[in-house]
Amino acid sequence: MPTVAVVPGEGAAVEALETTLEVLQSMALGLRFVHPLVGERALAAGLPAFPDMARTAIDDADATLFGATSGPSAAALFYLRWGMQTFANVRPIRWFPGMPSVLADPTGIDLVIVRENLEDAYVAIEGDLAVLEPLALTSRTAGVAPHLMGEGRFALKAITRAKSEQVVRHAFKLARARKLAGGRGLVTASAKHNMLPQTDGLFMEVATQVAADFPDIGFETLIIDDCAHRLVRMPNRFDVLVMPNLYGDILSDMAAGLVGGLGVAASGCFGADYAYFESAHGTAPDIAGKNIVNPTATLLSAAMMLEYLGFGNAAARLRTGIERVYADGLTLTPDVGGKATTHAFGAAVIASL
């Protein structure tokens, strides 16, 4: 019996997660859900936001289903990401009838952005430019030392060979699995390697080396700004894209906007032996408590989780059920042009199953 740790998070994300659990429980898959006291719930019980017993519950689970956080649940999210070393953030972007795309013809959009999840600018090392003086650095473009540029600050960007290889291999394996299911079998690696040859250049070098181990999968490289342009102009030409952390964070949200917005954007973060799943829309505090948040992103994230846990047929059923609700168009939430509540959307999915 697979065990899933459930972390509600904060804001409207809690409502989307509650509805998702109702749908999953209606499918009678034999999943065991545990609800460790985390974040606001832990604080209300007089505990630290992320007590040791919550960490143990997550460790003992086979996966975690996470709402979203902008508050005390962040400690749990940091643990799931950096503590569990979930190095690949996988963001599927797929359009199906009934989704309100901004494009005249979104037919055929079915891509995945694989984002390195642990390093790049997200090592979160920043400071005053003045502290760089002892390093005797000189800007390759401005031709002066950073501390002489004036009052200002810097951020460190770190790209390692090991973590780049991890995430690129994950992308190629995903492309291979998608090809077996009828996909294109193409990996696009993208970064700003023309301007950052040492860091982004290393990422692209590693990607090219890994590509040689997957001769059955197509491979191409794009400069990140060109990649962004092509994602908007011709999104249906892409299959699996892999890129460093910051670019992946930005472009995955942008790509979600092409098919209906963050309310339909699923997300899963995968490590060597653990994964957690959360919607990409955040906590949406402006609509918290109104019962109108779109649970599609959380439901599609749950479908990713079902696949990870070995319930491939159930994952396909869930996606088909969601697609039927969109095709019908009668029970959609306000963000995608409807008037239904969160729970009414969930009930419609249950009925469609």
Structure, explained:
- The chain has 353 residues and is an alpha/beta fold.
- Helices cover 39% and strands 17% of the residues.
- The protein has 11 helices and 12 strands.
- A hairpin with a 4-residue loop joins strand 11 and strand 12.
- The chain is globular and about 65 Å long.
- The chain starts with a strand and ends with a helix.
- The mean pLDDT is 96.
List strands and helices in order, with pairings.
Elements: E1 3-9, H1 13-26, E2 32-34, H2 40-44, H3 52-60, E3 63-68, H4 74-83, E4 88-94, E5 110-116, E6 126-128, E7 153-155, H5 161-180, E8 186-191, H6 200-211, E9 218-223, H7 224-233, E10 240-243, H8 245-259, E11 268-270, E12 275-278, H9 296-308, H10 312-328, H11 342-352
Helix pairs in contact: 1-9, 1-11, 5-6, 7-8, 9-10, 10-11
What characteristics describe this protein?
353 residues, alpha/beta, two-stranded antiparallel sheet, 17% strand
Quick summary:
This protein is of the alpha/beta class.
In terms of per-residue confidence, which ranges show pLDDT below 50 for 5 or more consecutive residues? none
Give a short account of the largest sheet: 10 strands, mixed
- In N-to-C order, the SSE pattern is EHEHHEHEEEEHEHEHEHEEHHH
Strand element count: 12
> What is the CA-CA span between the terminal residues?
22 Å
Main-sheet strand order equals 2-1-3-12-11-4-5-10-8-9
How many DSSP helices?
A: 11
Assign an overall shape: globular
Radius of gyration: 21 Å
Which structural class best describes the helix and strand composition? alpha/beta
Q: What would the average pLDDT be, to the nearest integer?
A: 96
* Helix amount: 25-40%
Strand content: 15-25%
